[in-house]
Amino acid sequence: MKKILLRLGILAVFLPLHASAQRVLVVDIGTRFSFMDIMVKIITFLAATAVIVCTAIFIAGAVCWTASGGKESGVQKGRDLMVGAILGLVTVLSSYAILRTVFYFIYFA
């Protein structure tokens, strides 16, 4: 009798799990994004983050240059930071423009 009750108890626990595993759960949050939309949002976020970082590095270089008090090593360090930030900004913005152009021709042409 105990074995039968144990088997019925196990069946009672696992049978609903088996039945619910066969159903498909669809969650609709009200918006539908295509692959293109998601990629554009990710690329835009990464580009905006890189622009913020480049701006912060440029400001740090300007502060370093200003705070050096005329010492050649401080001026050179600040100048290097500023030039690197500008080169990084140009790289990020040009790659952003290229990716947006490629996505435009792939999905809208």
- Tell me the structural class: mainly alpha
N-to-C series of helices and strands: HHH
The main β sheet shows up as:
none
Q: Give the beta-strand count.
A: 0
Which regions are unreliable across 5 or more consecutive residues at pLDDT < 50? 17-22
Q: Taking all residues together, what is the mean pLDDT? A: 81
Question: How far apart lie the N and C ends?
Answer: 72 Å
Inertia-based shape: elongated
* Distinct helical segment count: 3
Question: What proportion of the residues is helical, as a percent range?
Answer: over 70%
Structure notes:
The chain has 109 residues and is mostly helical. The chain has a domain at 32-107. Helix content is 82%, strand content 0%. The protein is built from three helices and no strands. It has helices at residues 2-21, 35-67, 72-107. The longest helix has 36 residues, at 72-107. The N and C termini lie far apart (72 Å). The relative contact order is 0.10. The model is unreliable at 17-22 (pLDDT under 50).
Question: Which key features would you list for this structure?
Answer:
109 residues, mainly alpha, 3 helices
